What we know:
Mean pLDDT: 82
CATH architecture of the largest domain: 3-Layer(aba) Sandwich
Shape: globular
CATH topology of the largest domain: Rossmann fold
Number of helices: 10
CATH superfamily of the largest domain: Response regulator
Order of helices and strands: EHEHEHEHEHEHHHHH
Number of strands: 6
Distance between the termini: 49 Å
CATH class of the largest domain: Alpha Beta
Largest sheet: 6 strands, parallel
Amino acid sequence: MSGGTAARPIRVVVCDDQDLVRTGFATIIGAQDDLVVVGEAADGEAATRLVRSERPDVVVMDVRMPVLDGIEATRRIAGPGVDDPTKVLIVTTFTLDSLVFDALRAGASGFLLKDARPAELLTAIRTVAAGESLLAPAVTRTLIGRHAEHLRPADRDTGVLDALTAREREVFVLVADGLSNAEIAQAMVISHETVKTYVSRILLKLSLRDRVQAVVLAHRLGLANPA
């Protein structure tokens, strides 16, 4: 046996009001060596209680549920003012639901559609647990569609990016196209840690809260591919 210490599994709570969906997610997640399901909830209120008692790393959260919906549950778990926020991955069927965007603003770290493949769900959980934000390509497109009607001529002034270096601009565009840090690292042939440093600098320089705001800004400036 190796003398090394095994990494602690990522602790996950699954919250969905549909028994079949919840059980399916829990089964897929629980079959992984690096993931463990520490609780299941059928509504947002139960999820918030589980978070307080189990202290998971990630909550897989549905949006529309009885008692307390996923938006308010996300706000209580990960929102502004929460002392010890837990990362939330929104998984829902509602591609164009405005509630999804409310959930992202409430503090969710990522968004995935329920028709995603099991491997995509597992990757999303690991990505969010690692401290990265994640947006499914469909969400990126929807974000742009939602904000397109609010574009003003001033939004096209790329002067706001003058603070970025050429390399940071390159990373900025890839973030806007929905690439994860790992994918950006591969595309630019640089290390994962270097990408994380670039992304942190970009958000700081542009006074952006997260990757969601970066996506919207990049598309407002016409710097990313809406497809």
